[in-house]
Amino acid sequence: MHFLHVVGARPNFMKVAPLMRALAARPGVRQTLVHTGQHYDQNMSDVFFRELDIPEPDVNLAVGSGTHAEQTSQIMQRFEPVVVEQKPDWVLVYGDVNSTIAAALVCAKLQIPVGHVEAGLRSFDRTMPEEINRLLTDQLADLLFTPSADGDRNLLREGVPRERIHFVGNIMIDTLVRLLPKAAATLPAELPEQYALVTLHRPSNVDELSDLKRLLDALTGIGTTLPIIFPVHPRTRQKIVELGFSHSETLRLWEPQSYLRFLALQQKATVVITDSGGIQEETTFLGVPCLTLRDTTERPVTVTVGTNVIIGRDLNLLGRAVKAVLNGEKKNSTVPPLWDGGAAERIAQILEATG
Ligand code: UD1
After folding, report:
1. I need a surface site. Which of 60, 115, 140, 353 has the fewest CB within 10 A?
2. What is the tally of structural domains in the chain?
3. Binding site membership of 46 for ligand 1 (Cβ less than 6 Å)
4. 3-state SS, residue 66
5. Whose CA is nearest to atom 35 of ligand 1?
6. Is the domain of 278 the same as that of 348?
């Protein structure tokens, strides 16, 4: 059987790696890897391929950045001839980025079966570009692999036939489980005993300069009691430069970190403050408190059973939540079902059975 995987942005890479490994272990399987080039910086892409042992992409569409319509349409135009030539049995798409919906839409029109890894997640907030990508990809996919039971419920409510839906667990956790033992060795030497690890890149937090300034001021305030380590996404970096905001000992602005180093930084952190999706899940698995600077989450299980607390945009609430963590107030948390390192194997078995 021939499987063609499509990835493009940083959060896709930790999801494709375990499935390629699981499929490679099976006889008679051929795999093709297409990188759309949505993320292209060395520290947003190449380093992940190296650390996660992902093979060199067979094809790089090199689309780069642009508006949503530009990026999505460029991926579609460049991907179509590739998939027509390759004639795979299955195309696998990951997560909720523009590369995911672009590839799924091309395949649906060509009647090439699509499997969506990390299906069914919903924030119910259509101002998020990712929510549009999730809704549409799940309508188009032939097999939908969900990380948590809420995903199954969302899909059934949207009319997706039950036989297409498979609750397989969280594939990103497969990568975490495999690489956690290697992570600690990559920790930087000059690390404070206690620190908050921060990531911010959602348009809703960083695109408006006044909102970003308020956030950075709040973080600077928190930094006086708990040093802040903030690896800055390129999108956020541009805005911070526009603001003329400068680095300080209490608010350390770092370059984006590699997978292993970021994992080690999460594990050692006193608290993580983020607007990412995947980091809400990784902190839940690691048992590290997570404060999410968004009004909603598409990963509710991280709140109901995990370590995540939704803070929204209330920066006073953020300050109080950090204090509570420093006072030793910890949520009772567990790891959600099937976040066990075996998701890729379960997906590979289901795909194999379609042959
Ligand atoms: C994308 C995903 C988001 C995911 C995030 C993880 C969509 C709609 N969004 O957001 O869901 O959480 O990736 O990082 O697909 N840039 C660089 N170098 C790069 C990549 C981007 O400088 O390698 C800069 C460019 O100025 C670009 C901006 O970052 O315009 C945004 O990149 P883009 O891929 O459009 O979206 P992300 O914010 O990265």
Report:
1. 353
2. 2
3. no
4. coil
5. 65
6. no
